[in-house]
Amino acid sequence: MTPLIAIVSTGTANVASMEAGLRRAGAETFRTSDPEQVADAMGVVIPGVGTFAAAMTHLRQTGMDDALRARFRSGRPVLAVCLGLQLLARTSEESPGEEGLGIVDADVVGLPEGASRPQLGWNEVIPSVPGYVERGHAYFANSYCLRSEGDAWQPSHAHHGDQFIAAMQRDRQLACQFHPELSGAWGVALLTRWIGTC
Fold it and tell me: What is the pTM of this model?
């Protein structure tokens, strides 16, 4: 049976590349703003690209914020990518005063002074433990990041001016600051490993 993955509408992201990446990795996809579909889906993807405030506003207006919190509490498969990872945090320097989903007990900060912002291109990812993420090079497009992964998450790191969280995993849930769908065969292999848990 081909896994059917729900891609959450954040109101900002262009999801065509994510849809293509998931298809290459063996899944079928559909887009949704329906909290019930997020609850029932085999796997859920929170895509990247956009601003923290705009995405959180859209999630609240559609009731997806609470649906995503419940999905994470359930332990069922979720993949968050780029901005999707940042939305899991409490807050972001990009949007002062805007609350995130609060799933990760950490705050999003800007990349350090002296480092190019945004970071656009390939960077090495180094996992702390075996899991979805293997050591390799991934494609990044970010100006903000997490410096810590909070409790219960196992981090992978990259370096751009300073060390930051490149990815973090918890059981069947994975969040990536990089774009696996744009990271060649390495990224497709990562998506395939995650889809295998759905």
Answer: 0.95
Quote the radius of gyration of the chain (alpha carbons, Å): 15
Say which of 149, 160, 176, 181 is annotated catalytic: 181
- The domain spanning residue 134 has which CATH number? 3.40.50.880
The residue from 19, 58, 82, 160 that is catalytic is: 82
Once rounded to an integer, what is the mean pLDDT over residues 114-139? Answer: 95
Active site residue 93: no
Boundaries of domain holding 47? 4-195
pLDDT in tens, 72-114: 999 999 999 999 999 999 999 999 999 999 999 999 999 998 8
User: Is 157 part of the annotated catalytic residue set?
Assistant: no
Burial class from Cβ neighbours inside 10 Å (0-12, 13-18, 19+) for residue 75 reads: exposed
Looking at residue 96, the DSSP 8-state letter turns out to be: T
Q: Which of 145, 149, 176, 179 is catalytic?
A: 179
Q: Catalytic site residue 181?
A: yes
Q: Looking at the 3D structure of the chain, how many domains does it have?
A: 1
